[in-house]
Amino acid sequence: MTSAVRKFDSLDTPEQRKPELTLAQADSRDTLRNCVRRSLNDFFRNLDGEDVSELYDTVLAEMEIPLLEKVLEYTRGNQTRAAEMLGLNRGTLRKKLKQYGLL
Question: Which of 21, 22, 88, 93 meets the CB 3.0–4.6 Å disulfide criterion with 26?
Answer without folding.
Answer: 21
